[in-house]
Amino acid sequence: MSKYKTCFFSPNQSSETIHGVKFIGMMNSSCDIPELYRGFGDISTTMFALPTICLGLFGHRLPERVTMEDIRLHKTTNITDDAHMVSLTTNKQVAKDWGNKNYITLDPVLFRQYVIDVHKTYTYHHYNLPGRMEREAEHVALAVLFCSVKSITIGDTDIKNPFYVAIDEHNEEAIQAFENLYLDYLTLLRTLREQPGQAEEASGLLVEFVETYLSFYDKFAGPDNPFDKTADELLIHYPEFVTRFLQQAGHVDCQTVTFKELARTSNKNLIENHAYGRTLTQATPFNPSQIVTCYDDPWSYSTYE
């Protein structure tokens, strides 16, 4: 049995990664969940840029210690995004509702140990969710990387992601390699979010990141590594994705320049050129005392305890 099958930490225990991320009193998502979904309205403007790690979807909260308080703040603050992590669900209809029929389908194998089951965690801590939140079947993560996105759905159109990497749940080498990549990604996002003045440091981390990300594909994406393809080559099998990518990318040499070369030549500007990245770098440091809590928000008022 894979050591990544389960991941539960009691309030008196914690799991600490090599980068210091701790989960305290969390119930993580079951290994029986084959897919997770995330619905959001701006898919068409965020999911077809250069598909490197910086296209990952991330929330505003990147705590180094994830506790029940972080989950409570995420779940019961709906007016402001300051306390939010990445919302996922096992219910496809809920994702459609969240995104007004737009959502992405995710394979959780690579990052499952970093996904928290909100409802099980609430139950463990003897909190109750309001009925309208129960149906959401919500799970949360600190970040989601593009290689875990299986498909992108816009309205009635399902678009396959050519950069999805399918990994068997027993492939511990790939899962460990991804874990290092994922934690480095959190470090980068945390630097951008909490230290906006450290532009040079963030730029260096970003360049290193892109190389690590490309190396992950080199090793685990197989002989059809999409980063080794040109736009024309990918267009044959993934016309919807590539067409939308080219519409956003502007002038790209579709015949001779590979996606790997595009990633390396654009790596220093990936944050600035990404809609979520611009929001991240413009954000102010998280301050719990300034957020709108459930006591101010009628959607959540006094229902969590």
What's a quick, concise take on this entry?
The protein is of the alpha+beta class and 305 residues long.
Descriptive overview:
It is globular and about 60 Å long. The N terminus is likely disordered. It has a 4-stranded antiparallel beta sheet with strand order 3-7-11-12, covered by helices on one side. The chain has one domain. With 305 residues, the protein is an alpha+beta fold. A hairpin with a 5-residue loop joins strand 1 and strand 2. Pfam families: Lart1_ADPRT. InterPro entries: Lart1_ADPRT (IPR059097).
Features:
305 residues, alpha+beta, three-stranded mixed β-sheet
Low-confidence stretches: 1-18
The helix count comes to: 11
Strand composition percent? 5-15%
How many discrete structural domains? 1
What would you call the shape?
globular
Averaged pLDDT: 81
What is the helix fraction of residues, given as a range?
25-40%
Oligomer: single chain
Terminal CA distance reads: 37 Å
Give me the Rg, rounded: 19 Å
What structural category characterises the helix and strand content?
alpha+beta
Order of helices and strands: EEEHEEHEHEEHHEEEEHHHHHH
Strand order of the largest sheet: 3-7-11-12
DSSP strand tally: 12
Biggest sheet architecture: 4 strands, antiparallel
